[in-house]
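From: lab user (bench 3)
To: helpdesk
Subject: output format question, protein + guanosine-5'-triphosphate

Hello, I'm new to running complex predictions and I'm not sure whether the block I got back is the full result or only part of it. Here's what I submitted:
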Amino acid sequence: MRAVVLVGGRGTRLRPLTDHVPKPMLPIGHRPMIAALVERLAHAGVDDVTLALGFRPEPFMVAFPDGRVGDVTLRYAVEPEPLDTAGAIRFAADHAGIDTTFVVANGDIVTDLAVADLVAAHRRTGAEATLHLTPVDDPSAFGVVEVDADGRVERFVEKPTPGETSSNLINAGTYVFEASMLARIPTGRRVSVERETFPAVVADGGLFAIATDDYWTDTGRPDLYLAANAALLTGERPERCRAVAPGASVAEDATLERSLVEAGATVAARARLVGSVVLDGGFVGEGATVERSIVMGRVGAGTTVRDAVIGADGDVADGVTVADARIPEQG
Ligand code: GTP
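Helpdesk reply: Thanks, we reran it on our side. This is the complete output you should expect:
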């Protein structure tokens, strides 16, 4: 079975990290999130994945130079300009010559969904497309999906006000498509799958969905990216990882709470990390405290950093306190 994975977004909410590394190439539990996603698709029988690339395609090609992740063949479809989600799916599927049922996945989702269950549900109902849904506590910031007792999608409610819908299920970013979905997507312009394509399929009665309560998170915001990493330390997921990757340098008397340190990162003596991730190339100086932050650049000795994102070019001086910051600041 084949799949298209969307990885061409700019990842603006994770700037300045994404000025250097595309969001799906950032690690979760010491591995690029795209590698874990491709592996999950492989468990469902996917053996051929087309990456829908746009912004910054090179890091993917460098990371997977032989065009494989395990036994899965990778293809690269690079858009000449950003085509938005549906436009990217059509472009990538045309590039790969997809003409039968296929899987689509957002490249920045971390979940334990068994994709085979989604495919089985799709085949059972004879849907034109089937969505994975996940419950959220507060649906007011999301596009909520209403389904009937048979799993047929009845409507989408964008950012519902209290009482507007009884559903708390949101689009979780993994789909199964019949090839006929492709003809619904116009070429050569930006097309959003949620705003334009899915509502048209709902009108024809062909969109179905299944909700699961598997672990699920979008990694698009710094706090969510940190939570997705911490979940691999806490036992929230069946899979676990070590806090310190082989190839990281962490002083013996540094302390780590719910924090991860990647290969190529350095944490100096008496530094303290709380709910943070230090990425490849990141440096945390002697006696520094880093809380709820992501560090790809340098944090000086004795410095305190809270709720911050320090990009590869970020350099926080010794002995200062920085909070709620993106460094370097965005122009
Ligand atoms: P933000 O800029 O922070 O909103 O992040 P993003 O660019 O990743 O956007 P969003 O999270 O809404 O995108 C959902 C998924 O679609 C991600 O996996 C993106 O990589 C992907 N995506 C978004 N727009 C495009 C596009 O124009 N082309 C391609 N190929 N992928 C896209």
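A quick orientation on your result: The radius of gyration is 21 Å. Let us know if anything else is unclear.
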